[in-house]
Amino acid sequence: MSDVMTNLTEQFSAYSHWRGKAAEAVAKLRAWLSRNEIGDAQSDLRLQYLLDRLHDDKLTVAFVAEFSRGKSELINAIFFSDYGDRILPSSAGRTTMCPTELQWSKGDTPELRLLPIRTRARPGTVSELRRYAEEWRVVPLGALDAASLQAALARVGETDRVAQDEAASLGFRIDARGEDGLKPGADGLIEIPRWRHALIRFPHPLLEQGLVVLDTPGLNAIGAEPELTLSMLPSAHAVLFILAADTGVTHSDLVVWRDHVQAAGARERGRLVVLNKIDGLWDGLRDDARIEAEVARQVRSVADTLEVAPASIFPVSAQKGLVARVTGDAALLGRSRLPALEHALADELLPARRDIVRDDTLEETGDVVAGTRSLLEARLASLREQLQELTDLRGKNQSVIEYMMRKIRSEKEDFEQGLQKYYAVRSVFSELTNSLLAHMGMDALRDETRRTREAMLESQFTRGLRQAMEGFFQRLRDNLQRSTGEIAEITRMLEAMYKRFSVEHGLKLGLPETFSTLRYEREIERLEAAFNRQINTTLTLVTTEKHALTQKFFETVAVQARRTFEIANRDVEQWLRAVMSPLETQVREYQIQLKRRLESVKRIHQATDTLEDRVDELKQGEDAVLAQLAELAALERDIAAVLGAPAAAPPLRQAAA
Ligand SMILES: Nc1nc2c(ncn2[C@@H]2O[C@H](COP(=O)(O)OP(=O)(O)OP(=O)(O)O)[C@@H](O)[C@H]2O)c(=O)[nH]1
Ligand SMILES: [Mg+2]
Predict the structure, then answer these.
(1) What ranges in 606-647 are assigned the alpha helix state H?
(2) pLDDT value at residue 265
(3) The most confident of 200-209, 310-319, 339-348, by mean pLDDT
(4) Which end of the chain has fewer CB atoms at under 10 Å, N or C?
């Protein structure tokens, strides 16, 4: 059962090994820069952030389905069969009652963290509450064998029985028939999940390499947790939607598909449909050909209903796959068809991720290397110029030397005048920057959020709620648009500045990097679309609690918008530093070189130095800079070699689909 090519675990390890190698190469560059004292603080920070990203790059795989379709069993079979037993509880009926994340980072303590469902009654999304340890119930995971894990993890299935209005206030739908919501018991009480979210931290090789598994409960057990659809699922790198062959596509499967999978972003990439429990067809009466035909028929029918390509549907038996792995039964594993699903999952997940990491690494290191190279080249040019000046002085008399001194002095004055203009432009630059940061800034967003929240509280009708929300998104977009104008102006100004210093003073400056806010505008659009979809379903299904629910949705949206703006802010600040720093570094460097030139001519003039000593010294300096340029090129080649060429064209199987 160790077919290397279909083994997700091994492919995942290879990816993580590759990432480790990339980090090593980047760390080498960073160490070299600081050892040679060439890197500035800005580049060092950039490389540090890059290394952080390379080290804790997480890949999230989410499992979404109605209850009892086999999500937990599939997770056991794909990721944790090495325990020799199931570790996530999987049984008939509702088992997983709250979204459950499995993860591990270096330095974590093995434990289960449970967020009580009652935190829903208060403001604060799960992602905000993550920061407050006291909100969570912590269950230490002492032993890490399958039995102990099973016992601890069974807690994700705990429930409480509460009165109907309490259940409703916590965002659960109630339906006397139990179809469109939770069904009240004979005593009128409702059984609701005890926990809102579970975090499971335990050291497992796959989790250690950055895999995060997100298991979710069935539809009615989730109730209103818009964060799942607005944030957790859209940020997952792969989403597996699971159906069961014995139930087919039911009405509630379709609701989950529409509200949780499709609504989580129209991305087709990284989305797989699994048709589980095909072993139900192995009834001992049908032969293989009939089973095969039946599976194919079901796949076509599911494809029609969901409107997806049949090739993106994977019929499997999670249970038989798990048994096969635990007992080492290769024939059964083949029959479970699990390897095909894993292969597809690895294909969806890893090459795309690898490309992103590669591009990011090449871009960051490329910028730092380019900046360093132009600095070294400027240094080299200046050394050579000095060398030229001094060799020209050989055998010349005092008056020539005096002339030379005057020449350098006047160059220095010219440059200082240039600097005055530079300082003037810099103050305009910082004004522009301030207004850019004001539009893109967190204060603007906070004001918008508060204004919208107040407008929502005041409005009594759905129309008012809608208008408030539409206004919110519109103003966020306006702010981003206005920033675009300021960014263009900053770029124009810098271009002129870069040009002037290159032409008039021979500084080695290319064109300043550009910056676009398109990414953030897209994200806000996505958020608005997801919000509208959620609101539409809520408004049709829930009539009584809709006001409270809409506000809850809004809070989730606000958190997401804040995250987008935080990223935009960080990016724009980094960009501002990145475009300013080459200019600043080179200006500083040029000033130093001018001073040195003047010094050395002065010393020769005063005969405190002999000309030849000075020439030798400069030649050594030249050699040293040449050696550094060569070392830099080697470091850059190393990074490129480790990262490898971009992924080849997709395999035929995908191209044909
Ligand atoms: N025959 C068969 N049964 C399966 C298979 N996969 C899961 N099951 C059974 O289906 C039931 C539900 O499986 P779970 O893994 O608990 O399903 P789930 O989707 O996690 O369900 P919830 O946690 O309740 O939302 C269990 O009794 C499993 O043993 C399969 O491939 N074949
Ligand atoms: Mg489950």
Answers:
(1) 611-643
(2) 58
(3) 310-319
(4) C
- Average pLDDT value over all residues in the chain: 85
Closest CA to 580 of 516, 513, 517: 513
Using pLDDT thresholds of 50, 70 and 90, give the confidence band for residue 73. Answer: very high
What is the mean predicted confidence (pLDDT) over 540-546? 52
Three-state SS at 314: strand
Strand partners, 192: 160
Specify the domain boundaries for CATH 1.20.120 within the chain: 398-606
What's 151-170 look like in SS3? HHHHHHHCEEEECHHHHHHC
Ligand 1: residues whose CB is within 6 Å? 65, 67-73, 90-92, 94-96, 217-218, 276-277, 279-280, 317-319
From 63, 68, 87, 295, the mutation candidate for ligand 1 (largest count of ligand atoms within 8 A of CB) is 68
Interval 467-519: pLDDT, tens: 888 888 998 888 888 888 888 888 888 888 888 888 877 777 777 788 888 88
d(CA 271, CA 267): 8
Order of strands across the sheet that contains 100-103: 137-140, 111-116, 195-201, 100-103, 211-215, 59-64, 238-244, 271-276, 313-315
Q: Whose CA is nearest to atom 26 of ligand 1?
A: 91
Task: Please name the amino acid found at residue 223.
Answer: G
287-308 pLDDT per residue, tens: 889 999 999 999 999 999 999 9
Query: Most confidently modeled of 138-152, 283-297, 331-345, 484-498?
Result: 331-345
Q: Give the end-to-end CA distance of the chain in Å, rounded to a whole number.
A: 28
Q: Of 63, 66, 72, which is best to mutate to test ligand 1, by the most ligand atoms within 8 angstroms of its C-beta?
A: 72
Q: Among candidates 54, 63, 405, which has minimal Cα distance to 261?
A: 63
Residues in the chain: 657
For ligand 1, atom 24, the nearest C-alpha belongs to: 94
Cα 103 to averaged position of ligand 2 atoms, centre (Å) = 17
**Which protein residue's CA is at the shortest distance from atom 16 of ligand 1?**
90
pLDDT digits (tens, 9 = 90+) for 398-456: 788 888 888 888 888 888 888 888 888 888 888 888 888 887 778 888 888 888 888 87
- The span from the CA of 237 to the CA of 496, in Å, is 42
The rounded Å distance from CA 167 to ligand 2 centre is 21
570: exposed, middle or buried (Cβ count in 10 Å: 0-12, 13-18, 19+): exposed
Write out the residues surrounding ion ligand 2, Cβ under 5 A: 71-72, 95-96
Confidence (pTM): 0.78
* pLDDT tens digits, one per residue of 259-275: 888 866 545 668 899 99
pLDDT of residue 653: 38
Lowest mean pLDDT, pick from 67-76, 224-233, 546-555: 546-555
Q: pLDDT-based confidence at 390, cuts 50/70/90?
A: confident
Give the atom of ligand 1 at the shortest distance from the alpha carbon of 65: 19
Look at strands 100-103 and 211-215 and give their pairing: antiparallel
Q: How far is the CA of 253 from the centre of ligand 1 (A)?
A: 15
Structure tokens at 432: 């522009």
- Centre of ligand 1 to C-alpha 69, Å, is 5
Are 550 and 538 contacting, i.e. CB atoms less than 8 angstroms apart?
yes
Average pLDDT rounded to a whole number, residues 96-120 = 92
Ligand nearest to the CA of residue 70, numbered in listed order? 1
- C-alpha 136 – ligand 1 centre gap (Å): 28
- Structural tokens at position 339: 């390897």
Hey, what are 256's tokens?
């989950």
CA distance 362 to 640: 7
